[in-house]
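Example S7 (structure tokens).
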């Protein structure tokens, strides 16, 4: 019986594919991450931004990653903070890796698609890096590992800035501040 179990365990361990690069740590600063869609040849990140604090992801390579020569990356970057995304930067560090950019799409969806009542009805901005939904004509981003060895580390750092309010939003804010000033002046005059 033990020999049968050992044989089955050995067969399953040989049949299992190698993992994608290992996510060693993530600095989320209160934001949310779901990396459960990653596969042996793909780093898939689903990020919900609750604020505009920077994010950092640290990865470590193993021998299988080096043999593969690189890994594909796709991500969904979803702003649910209500501030919007004015601009973003994605940088790499730690190891000398080559990044070949793929597709980048942006869209706005209604907040009621989210499960939380707090964000319901608010517009949500989403950016799609690569091809997270496997659509025709879109390609994932590719990170190459030429010249690296097992045990090397690299980071992906993401920084966003809030969207600048539109002129009509500025006018509404100024009108609101003006009304507060008039109200305060009337109370002082009594």
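Recovered sequence:
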């Amino acid at each position: 019986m033990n020999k049968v179990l050992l044989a089955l365990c050995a067969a399953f361990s040989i049949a299992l594919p190698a993992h994608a690069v290992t996510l060693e740590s993530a600095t989320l600063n209160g934001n949310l991450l779901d990396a459960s869609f990653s596969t042996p040849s793909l780093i898939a990140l689903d990020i919900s931004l609750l604020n505009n604090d920077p994010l950092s992801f640290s990865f470590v390579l193993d021998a299988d990653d080096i043999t593969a020569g690189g890994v594909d990356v796709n991500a969904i970057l979803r702003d649910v903070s209500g501030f919007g995304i004015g601009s973003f930067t994605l940088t790499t560090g730690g190891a000398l890796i080559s990044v070949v950019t793929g597709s980048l799409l942006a869209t706005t969806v209604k907040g009621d698609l989210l499960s939380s009542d707090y964000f319901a009805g608010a517009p949500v901005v989403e950016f799609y890096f690569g091809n997270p939904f496997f659509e025709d004509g879109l390609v994932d981003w590719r990170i190459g590992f030429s010249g690296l060895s097992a045990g090397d580390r690299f980071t992906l750092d993401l920084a966003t800035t809030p969207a600048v309010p539109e002129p009509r939003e500025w006018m509404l804010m100024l009108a609101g501040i003006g009304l507060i000033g008039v109200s305060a002046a009337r109370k002082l005059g009594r």
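Notes on this example. The chain is about 25% helix and 35% strand.
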